[in-house]
Amino acid sequence: MSKSRYLLKQHTLSELFTVVYVFIDDYLKAAQASGHFELPYSEQQKGSYSELMSIALVGELLNQADVGLWFNLEPIRKPLLRS
Q1: Cα–Cα dist 45/51, whole Å
Q2: What is the pTM (predicted TM-score) of this model?
Q3: Cα within 13 Å of Cα(81), Cβ side
Q4: Which of 18, 23, 57, 64 has its CA 20 to 30 A from that of 48?
Q5: Mean pLDDT rounded to a whole number for the chain
Q6: Domain count, the chain
Q7: pLDDT digits (tens, 9 = 90+) for 46-73
Q8: Is residue 10 in a domain?
Q9: Beta carbons within 8 Å of 42's beta carbon, 6+ residues apart
């Protein structure tokens, strides 16, 4: 099963965000620890890079052009991806 299909099999929007966030956060931490890149940091930063990338990726996965549409998805009774 591809990672995209796995992500879309989550049952709620909050589950999807959680799984996407964990994947991205783990990847960014491992890449920084191995010296692949360094992300800038500011004391005034409102969100982490993992949070921002998660929001963007979930929007792409769900083909949502407008963030406001996400709130119409809760609660989801079945997987986001139809078989």
Answers
A1: 12
A2: 0.68
A3: 14
A4: 64
A5: 78
A6: 1
A7: 889 999 999 888 888 877 766 666 666 5
A8: yes
A9: none
Residue carrying structure tokens 């879309």: 8
pLDDT digits over 10-38, tens only?
Answer: 677 888 889 899 999 999 999 999 999 88
Q: Is 41 contained in some domain?
A: no
Tokens of 3: 């990672």
Q: Which two tokens stand for residue 77?
A: 């009774």
* Tokens, residue 46: 């409102």
With respect to residue 81, please indicate whether it lies within any of the assigned structural domains.
no
Domain-embedded: residue 68 = yes
Chain position carrying tokens 């783990």 = 26
Instruction: Round to whole Å and give the CA distance between 77 and 12.
Output: 7
Domain extent for 68: 3-35+47-73
Query: Encoding tokens for residue 31?
Result: 């890449």
